[in-house]
Structure formats: structure tokens, C-alpha cells
User: Fold these one by one.
Assistant:
Number 1:
Amino acid sequence: MMMAARENLLAAARERILVAEGGMGTMLARLGVRVTNTAEANVTHPEIVAQVHREYLEAGAEVFQTNTFGANLPALERAGLADRAVEMQVEAVRILREVVGDKGWIAADLGPTGELIEPLGTTSMEQVVGVYRQQLEAMVPAGVDFVLGETFESLEEAEAAARAARAVAPELPLAITMSFSLPNGRTSMGVTGAQAAERLAELGVDIIGANCGHPEGTLIALGEMSETAGDRILMAQANAGVPVLRGGETIFEGTPQWSGEMAARLMEMGVRILGGCCGTTPEHIRQIARAAKASV
């Protein structure tokens, strides 16, 4: 029996701090995997994707997300991989479930489409809802415990993900995290933490928060969210500091210790699910897990 069947994710997060996994792209690159879209690794290097999830499990994570951040049709079309979309989506769930078993919860992960929704762009809301419905219709039957939409900069795209999730899997908890990429606590589209919390609550999202983005912006936004979240659970998966370019390579300077200290600050704001995003590794998650344990 899966953990989600024994113990509801929402109830568990209210009872104790839950640790989520960290970055996938960072780890795939570190392990020598070169792909045009990280979801491609689900079919070209499934054993390495499994290894990454396993290392996070061993580091103390119990909340996981499928390697499908870029597995929506618009993103896959840009990479020339759309014909293998369902295969990549289903494989992501299979790989993760085999690793995690009943030791944690796994999310069907939805990332940005890269399209601008009307009136800012030419893509309609219904088209984007359809994109996410396709992804979830492939993944939910494969056996996930909740749905996670992440790294959204616009509330319109977050709404599309929420509408798709409620249409395909109304019985599953829904989490949405925005990316506050500006140091003043706004997304690149100008959304504040307070605005995000209010809109996501209106959409009936169960877990709200921030991932990726600028570390200081993330703290500011989550501070605002904590004041307006109501009974929503707060989630955070921050980057490992601010990226810098060295020798043509993007480096995240945040150490594992830095991530542990960041986790302590986030817990003080009421964050209940803590993990990592770009630049984080199993060592970063290990430090976050230690901070969570120390808070008890």
C-alpha cells in the first residue's frame, strides 16, 4: 500500500515538516547526461534518472516529482520530441514509483509551456489547459499521489494547470509554486507573493509556494504568502543561491550549508514542505533534512 493511501499528504504536512527532493537538471548534467529536454532522459537514461531520485531518497526526501518539468507538448515540440511525449511522461512515473515505493509521495510535475497566454500572447487559456490535460491524462493513471505545477511566472499559466488538474484528477491534492525571479519578491510578470496566494486560494489549490527564482525574492514572496495563505500549506524549493557564469558554465554558489540555513528561515515563515531547485544536490537536501529534524 502506498504511503499516500495510508497517510494523506496534506495531513502529514500539517503534522510535521516534509522534505522534498532537489534539482534534476543539475544532477543529470553532473552525471554526464546531455539532452535537449530533461524529460528525454526518461527514455534514454532511465537508470540515471532513477539514480538521482534514489540519492534524494537516501538524503532524506519523502516528497518527489516526476522528471517531467519540460514534458508538455509545446516544450517537446521545440526539442523535436513531441512524438514520444506519452512515453516520456509514463516512464517518468514508472521510474519514480519503482524508486520510492511506499516511502514517499510522488507528484505529476507540470512546468511552464513557454507560451504567453492571451492577451499578452497568441495562445488561448483553453489551449494551455489542454496541454496540461494531455500530460495529466497520461501520468495520473500511471500512479501519482498529487499534482505539482511549478516555476510559473504568470497567474494565467498557474490557472491553466489548476483547471487541468481539477478536471483530470479532482481527488488528488494540488500544489502550485511560482517563481519569484526578481530580488524584490516579484515574478518576471510582476506577480507578488500576496497576489499569488490570493489567486491560488481562489483556484482551490491545496499547497502554494515558491520554487526556483531569486533567493531573496523567494523569501520576500513567501513572507507575503504566509500572511495570506489561510489554511493552505506552504511549499518552497529554492535554488542553491544565485547563479554566476564562470568559464562559460553556470554555477550556483549556494552550498549545502547555505540551503540548510535557508530552510531554517523558511520554516520560521511557516513553510511545511521544503526541497531544492536549480543547483541543489543530494547534499543540499541532506542539510535541509537536518534542519527540518532540528526544528522538531
Number 2:
Amino acid sequence: MLARMIDHTLLKPETTPADVAALVDQGVSLGVYSVCISPSLLPVDTKGLKLATVCGFPAGAHQPGVKAAEAAEAVRLGADEIDMVVNLGALKAGQWDLVRDDIKAVREAVPGDTILKVIIESAALSDDEIVRVCRVAEQAGANFVKTSTGFHPAGGATVHAVELMKATVGDRLQVKASGGIRTLADAEAMIAAGATRLGLSATAQILAELG
């Protein structure tokens, strides 16, 4: 069921607690897997849905200790899943030890059963960089690799990136596609490419296309 693959997402900076409450109510009515919101809006009653939040968002340019503390506090406030942004500058500089240690700091700061997704900003990367960062995320203990924040000017998810990410991690990690997925055809293409989770803000519209 498509709805159960969706992180129903609201990450606009101006989001209010009332907006989050409405998001949760809509998510419950649509039967989604989780809601994904900014950490400053925790804690929140998700009415049985899983709770995801972001870390080092949206630039990823925070110190590892800051990301780790942010993730730990989010889990303390009820988060089940952490979507962290990779250190994109270190990645582009080829500083792979820094990229790995950054992810590992967050992994070690949260309980083992906390799902960790690593946002790689695939639209800003070469194919070789996508493959390399997926391997590094796996080494650092991630559960998912995720395409995009949805905030980078380079763009969001593409079928090509999802296929490449899936080919790299196989069944060892899962792949989340997010950023610019606005139609049912988009969603189905990402799933066919290998995505097992979708980050959507257009959830209602997409599910309405199912009829």
C-alpha cells in the first residue's frame, strides 16, 4: 500500500504547532507511515504514526557534535527516525573520513533501534560521489540513504539517482526518495527504481490520484 511508504512531510521554516497538528490529523486519515517535521516542533502527539525529524538541516554544515546532540535531543523528545544531512562540503572535497565520522557521530548518539537516514543531496553529486557516499553511509551504520532535502537549488530526487543508490546499497540499506515528487507517476517511478520510502509534502494529492 502506497500510503504506508510515505513520510508525510512539513519542513517549511514558518510551520506552526497548529500546522503540525493538522499534518498529523491528515496523515492519520490518509494512513501514512510517519510524519516528518522540524526538531523545534517536538514533542508532538502523532496519534500512532511514527515520528521522523531532521538533523543538520538543510545545509549539513554543522559540526558533528552539534548534529549528534540535536539527534539525541530529538529522540529524547519522541523521534523514532532521524533524517540527517551529510557534510556536503567535506564530500565534495573528498574528505571521506570526515563524512563517515559525521554520520557515525549521529549513529552513536541515538539508540540502536532509531532509524537513521542519511540525506546525500544526490542532485548536487556526480554518479561516483553518489556511489561513494552511499558506501560510506553504510560503513557508518545508516539504515537508509535519502536523495534530497528538497531545499537544495540543484533539485530533488531523480529516477537515475534512486536506481544508482539502490544498486550500491542493495538490500542492506533502504532508499528514501524525496524532493520534487508531486504526482502519482513520480511516486511510482521512484518505487520502481528501488525506493522503499517516499518523503512527500503532496501526499493528499498523490493518494487522491489512486481514486
